[in-house]
Amino acid sequence: MHLDVLDLRNFYYRTQLGRAAQKAIRDQVVALWPEATGRTVAGFGFAVPLLRPYLAEARRVIGLMPGQQGVMPWPVGMENVSVLCEETRWPLDTGIVDRLVVLHGLETSENPTAVLEECWRVLGPGGRALFIVPNRSGLWSRSDRTPFGYGRPYSMGQLDAQLRTHNFVAERHQTALYVPPSSRRFWLRTAVMWERLGHRVSPVMSGGVLMLEVSKQLHTPQRPGLRAAVRKPLRVLEGIQKPVPGPA
Fold first, then answer.
1. Is 41:62 a contact under the CB 8 Å cutoff?
2. Fewest C-beta atoms under 10 Å: which of 51, 108, 161, 242?
3. What is the mean pLDDT of residues 177-192?
């Protein structure tokens, strides 16, 4: 089941723990995709907190929010880019998206197959998608005090296998949220330190979320025998003498 948009908004924007989680994940997104100049960037689920760095340079930024979750205007004080949509039918043209971020959209869906089919449809050839899901071996998936304690947590192998069945090609993977899901002052003050430490010693430490970047690759179909047929000379030209240049 999808979480309510008000609960997600309150967590990410009105709690210290949520703001720390937002920064930890967004820093990794920017590390993977440092720029998006001239590209169309979209997010599905509740991915808008991760899209802010691309507002200034991207050709277009779109925040898709499923009806089961609800929608809120975003970003505050700027032209709204949020769109309420059906979970399995997005109001986007086929192949229009260059970069797609999915956060709180896959693990909470009752029809993940249809969601992945829409991801594939809207992504352009060579486009990249980033799926962010709760880590089943992390602390965050074991606590229902955060949005990552809801839905189906994944292992990296499970996430990779599910995306491969929908023809996505795995490119890079990352983890985030090494700080415990606690609102205690000590953990919040040291959140940045835990993130740095976690990335250095991973996989010794388990991050709270898994991040898998995939691409959409389309290959030109090869018709059997076409190459061999082209290489053979045309028989209709056999017996014709080559022209001889005449005197100048």
1. yes
2. 242
3. 92
Q: Please name the residue that has the structure tokens 């924007």.
A: 13
Cα 57 from chain centroid?
A: 19
pLDDT tier, 236 (very low <50, low <70, confident <90, very high otherwise): very low
Q: Is the pLDDT of residue 189 over 80?
A: yes
Contacts of 190 (CB under 8 A, 6+ apart): 179
pLDDT tens for 128-148 read 999 999 999 999 999 889 999
Tally of residues, the chain:
248
Determine the Cα angle at 115 with ends 36 and 110, to 5°: 135
Per the prediction, the chain carries an average pLDDT of 89
CA separation for the pair 103, 111 (Å, rounded):
15
The answer on pLDDT for 220 being more than 60 is no
